[in-house]
Amino acid sequence: MLVAVLIANPARPSITGAVLAEARAVLRTEHPPRILHGEVAAEILVPGDPADAGALTERLRTALSGEPIDLAVLPADAHRRKRLFLADMDSTMIEQECIDELAGTLGLKDHVAAITERAMRGEIAFEPALRERVALLKDIPVTAVDGLIADQLSLTPGGPTLVRTMRAHGARTCLVSGGFTLFTGPIAGMIGFEEHRANVLGVADGRLTGTVEDPIVGKAEKRATLIALRDALGLDPAETLAVGDGANDLDMLAEAGLGVAFRAKPAVAAAARVRIEHGDLTALLYLQGYAAAEFVG
């Protein structure tokens, strides 16, 4: 059995009765919809094999292409609610790129942001691009980070609810970032993650040295973190969930039982099994079959 999940942005409810009727017709299912949250999210059981999920998702997307709705067809099995959750930080759990904001303190934000964008799109290799950008940050006071977190960074809507709800239901959570521990530590605490992994910037006399310690947390390290945590917990691969937006997240998303591209770069959205373009981060709860009444705020 499969389940089709329809998700809208909470600020723009769009899952109307007419939309659900059309979805059922396209899916050729007699099962009634289960409303997860008003006109924001619903799911419909669909007879079928997991091998059919991709084709059914595309069929739904074509039929509802004019609607601001995210769509996914997933296995309706015992592993639907995940027990391990890994998330990217920059442009995923927060709405900014920390390295760009740091560069802004030196008047270099546009220059660094252009390199960041190319790296996240997969147009240039992540590791050398990171070293190039970090070198430009030399002599920034470490104390600048506190000000940026307080004044410049914003949490992506739905993030704290996503993490706290999963933890309340027994999942392990980890923020894993190609950014820096100076940011992931405080931000993981703000959102509710149990642990965090990121790059370590060189610091001397209270200022950044323009260097980053090895190993760099890039594509391979993110995937390795998922595998290590999964194995330590003795989980089936299907019990894992990962979310990200950039090219350095692709291996982690592919390794997860459910890999979600969240408002991602085009190449990432195209490669991921599930993509969220309209909903907020609570979409990842609806994908797991949680109703809004079960959310932990």
TrEMBL record:
<dbReference type="InterPro" id="IPR050582">
    <property type="entry name" value="HAD-like_SerB"/>
</dbReference>
<protein>
    <recommendedName>
        <fullName>Phosphoserine phosphatase</fullName>
        <ecNumber>3.1.3.3</ecNumber>
    </recommendedName>
</protein>
<keyword id="KW-0718">Serine biosynthesis</keyword>
<keyword id="KW-0460">Magnesium</keyword>
<dbReference type="InterPro" id="IPR036412">
    <property type="entry name" value="HAD-like_sf"/>
</dbReference>
<dbReference type="Pfam" id="PF00702">
    <property type="entry name" value="Hydrolase"/>
</dbReference>
<dbReference type="GO" id="GO:0016787">
    <property type="term" value="F:hydrolase activity"/>
</dbReference>
<keyword id="KW-0028">Amino-acid biosynthesis</keyword>
<keyword id="KW-0378">Hydrolase</keyword>
<dbReference type="InterPro" id="IPR004469">
    <property type="entry name" value="PSP"/>
</dbReference>
<comment type="similarity">
    <text>Belongs to the HAD-like hydrolase superfamily. SerB family.</text>
</comment>
<comment type="pathway">
    <text>Amino-acid biosynthesis; L-serine biosynthesis; L-serine from 3-phospho-D-glycerate: step 3/3.</text>
</comment>
<keyword id="KW-0479">Metal-binding</keyword>
<dbReference type="InterPro" id="IPR023214">
    <property type="entry name" value="HAD_sf"/>
</dbReference>
